[in-house]
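To the wet lab folks,

You asked to see what we're planning to order before we commit. Fair enough. Below is the target structure as tokens, and below that is the sequence we designed to fit it. If anything looks off to you, flag it before the synthesis order goes out.
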């Protein structure tokens, strides 16, 4: 049985990536959302995480060792966005606990996985973390998969999910 480590980059352009025990990609999915869900305000809608679709994707893997989810609320988020982000985070965490219990489900701050995986590289280059850098490093590790192509905001979600899964694999 192949052990599986899942990394999830949350958000509307987020993704989930599953790696095996050697760090090779087993599967990936753009985080599924149900669009245009009515919000608490009549003139607003939101995009809610489709936990049933993500649950079906989890079923593709027989031996999930760890699920690591990035936690990063955006600075200056509007009220509807903040509410939706909190709702989606709660839905995602509920699904992960359902699959893993509390034993191997963890959340991680972006700076934590970046420092652990790429701390020396960041320090040596003096470059700040960027979407471009994340994509470039994921391509170096996993090849030029189509998920790392444009648009940048979508490719970045897949790249970060790969890094988060790798961080979880090394825990």
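Sequence we intend to order:
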């Amino acid at each position: 049985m192949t052990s599986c480590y899942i990394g999830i980059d949350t958000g509307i352009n987020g993704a989930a990536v599953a790696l095996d025990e050697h760090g090779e990609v087993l599967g990936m999915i753009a985080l599924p959302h149900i669009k245009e869900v009515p919000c608490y305000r009549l003139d607003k809608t939101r995009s809610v995480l489709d936990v049933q679709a993500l649950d079906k994707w989890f079923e593709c893997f027989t031996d999930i060792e760890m699920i690591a989810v990035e936690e990063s609320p955006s600075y200056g988020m509007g009220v509807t966005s903040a509410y939706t982000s909190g709702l989606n985070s709660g839905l995602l965490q509920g699904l992960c606990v359902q699959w893993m219990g509390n034993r191997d489900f963890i959340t991680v701050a972006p700076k934590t996985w970046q420092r652990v995986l790429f701390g020396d590289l960041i320090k040596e280059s003096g470059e700040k973390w960027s979407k471009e850098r994340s994509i470039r490093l994921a391509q170096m590790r996993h090849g030029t998969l189509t998920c790392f192509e444009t648009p940048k905001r979508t490719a970045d979600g897949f790249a970060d999910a790969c890094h988060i899964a790798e961080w979880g694999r090394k825990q």
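Structural context that might help your review: The longest strand covers residues 64-70. The mean pLDDT is 87.

Thanks,
Computational group
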